Amino acid sequence: MNLKSGKIEGFEGYSQFKSVKEFNTHVEMWLAVKKQEFSKGELVGLKRLVRFSVKVPGVSNAKIGTLLKAINDDYQGNGISRSTFKRMIIKAKEIGILSIYETERKNGSQSSNLYSFNRFPQSEPPKAEKLNHPKETNNLLKTNNQKTTKRNEAPIELDYTFVSDKVPQAFVQLVKYFFTDAKTIEEYWHMVQIAAFRFECNQQTEDILSIAIKSFKQLIRKLKSTKQVAKPIAFFYGILTNKLKELYLDQLPEDRHESKPSRYVLGNGEVMYYDWLHTDA
Hints:
By secondary structure, the chain is mainly α. The chain has helices spanning 20-34, 40-51, 64-74, 82-95, 128-131, 144-152, 169-175, 182-198, 205-225, 232-251, and strands at 3-4, 59-60, 98-101, 103-104, 114-117, 262-265, 271-274. It has a 3-stranded antiparallel beta sheet with strand order 2-5-3. The radius of gyration is 22 Å and the shape is elongated. 26% of the residues are buried.
């Protein structure tokens, strides 16, 4: 049964976020790993949908025509086509960024879709105790005796020599002394990529690598001095974001240190401002 159309406030139950800040953070992480899946025009459409999804964080029932008009106005008449926007929606749904629900008017005719953004699945860094233990998979073609044998065998662990080439060797050579398996090293570097994208410095490879190494060393000092770090990779991410935020602020022109809030236009035309720069990382 389709949902009944109505004011966006009536769809708060479809929001997966507690605040606009949390919603923006999850969008940033989705784009950090999935941006390359979209064309330039599709990204324009996705970012506009994000801006129309802040009154109820992560949820929008704006009409496609309304979204396209806003884009066209922003780009002085050089907006994107309806087909481009629809391709973006299909991709975002397939990737898992969006869930889409059809709505209908009281007379039963179809109304605009309800778009609900999903949380980034690895937004909370994985627990440290799980990093060294790959999930066991069952093969339904094996006999019960074979399953029992498999459970008694130690899982195969790939060491640091199997780490992806995308991870800088300098980072690998440091982390391998504390976490030897390839998966764990890659998870730590994945956190670096997310943090770098968040502060718009993902192209500054040398600075990012230097900060990543310093942050990991700071994590190790913490681990050696106390046993109260329940989630080392989460602690590492916190150190990273603080250091990258400093780098971001240092590179801003002097007049931009007085940050200007981001401007969001809601589906009903209301304007909302959100200042992420002066919020805690």
